[in-house]
Amino acid sequence: xxxxxxxxxxxxxxxxxxxxxxxxxxxxxxxxxxxxxxxxxxxxxxxxxxxxxxxxxxxxxxxxxxxxxxxxxxxxxxxxxxxxxxxxxxxxxxxxxxxxxxxxxxxxxxxxxxxxxxxxxxxxxxxxxxxxxxxxxxxxxxxxxxxxxxxxxxxxxxxxxxxxxxxxxxxxxxxxxxxxxxxxxxxxxxxxxxxxxxxxxxxxxxxxxxxxxxxxxxxxxxxxxxxxxxxxxxxxxxxxxxxxxxxxxxxxxxxxxxxxxxxxxxxxxxxxxxxxxxxxxxxxxxxxxxxxxxxxxxxxxxxxxxxxxxxxxxxxxxxxxxxxxxxxxxxxxxxxxxxxxxxxxxxxxxxxxxxxxxxxxxxxxxxxxxxxxxxxxxxxxxxxxxxxxxxxxxxxxxxxxxxxxxxxxxxxxxxxxxxxxxxxxxxxxxxxxxxxxxxxxxxxxxxxxxxxxxxxxxxxxxxxxxxxxxxxxxxxxxxxxxxxxxxxxxxxxxxxxxxxxxxxxxxxxxxxxxxxxxxxxxxxxxxxxxxxxxxxxxxxxxxxxxxxxxxxxxxxxxxxxxxxxxxxxxxxxx
Amino acid sequence: xxxxxxxxxxxxxxxxxxxxxxxxxxxxxxxxxxxxxxxxxxxxxxxxxxxxxxxxxxxxxxxxxxxxxxxxx
Lengths: 574, 73
What we know:
With 574 residues, chain A is mainly α. In chain A, 72% of the residues lie in helices and 0% in strands.
């Protein structure tokens, strides 16, 4: 959900940030051997389509929950958001709190029952059941295209990060990491992807947690850090979440609370966490309804803690680093200057001796590879079940589709590598790819949510609402991109809106257009009385009761707890 | 699943990896503490690598032992 575009400007620099010793290299090598070994081991357990594409639907709530959060917590996320925290302060935490937690709770408590009871294998699969092949086809094709494109972009971004941070050749990084991912995902399918995501979760925390711990020791705790920031950057507020958002002029993001609450919290985050198949697929692999509901809620507790290893290092960078970091364009043109996104690697080298350094670097590499695995496993599922089977070959034995899944994993990876090399030549593509991703996800949320909660929505309305939302989002993007002076003040409510703020308003407009068109077309068309909506929509679905369970075993209880903790955190850091 | 052999839980793999890393980091950090470079890292006197390596060994060892394959047969 964020870009590391700043680091992409850095390849012109020949100075690497980190020097790895032999023990660090050994740590990296052990990881590659481990993930390959796990993938080859799991191959024997992935004979059927359900095994390969949905890990047999046997994952416990904890495994599905950790994989759910890890699929999102890639290294571009870590580096980019630490950089955003350095640039914008603790306001960047909104993307981990109000911009994630309510959405994850909504997914678990409201939407997962319909995803799970319908026995769908994917989000486009749900649209097929609810609206028919038009909406499903549109969603599947756009998702497949965007996922492979994002995989290639992330692959290139990872290679650049490895070049900047440790001095590795771009081609080496691309080929070694992608071939490793290709082998273990083609062998073990979603099983492999999930197992390695759980590994990644532990590596991320053990690799990155030392930075905030040692940073706070050096700075003298939270109050010491705040005092140092004020001393280093007088007159600027980096340590309040909501106070600087009374008006757009009061904060460097150029956004008000309206954009954060409605643009980020109500639409952009909801759209991503509830309809992006890369993360939803992990929850669909849960072994039963209760596990499926609990998985995103378990993930939400860890998501809420991520600012500890992402946002806090960015803030600590302002307090303890001897030099001030600068925007990427400035860093690329001046020797000895580092960009905002370099804050995490700089903090790693500041505190980590040999061994610990390797652990930190492998956490970044694991993040990239888990993200790649997530992309290719999601692509394989959507291609095989939502494009190939319904439109190309409707009837074939299950093992045919499993073979298709394995082959398109490898083919998808090769296409991703090709995309990475194209992006290498045209780095500005990054700007458009990020925007394209948002264009398809935000309206999809409107379509899916309406479909789940309102049985009156017709098949035609589902398709036309989705299409209108996509076209509306594209239009908003183009207007703000190519005529910002005229359209940003109108569409983003202020001429000061940063790129992040514009993204949020773009998502908001996309969802609003989708919902309005869906409702209008619904009233203009008649529902098909022969369509069976059982298991797909509220009012037609028997959702199992949990009243017989003890309070501590009910997902709704833990959902309420995480929301309460969210509110408390927002008050503490107001 | 078509293989009847019980699946080794993911937690076992987590344990093995953390145990292996713990040993490597502990050993490397001990050596670093005994042979400090001319420009050590900030807060090097805390020897955090030694303690962190020990932590990984304990956590990894626990997971490896608790979820070892023969326990599940």
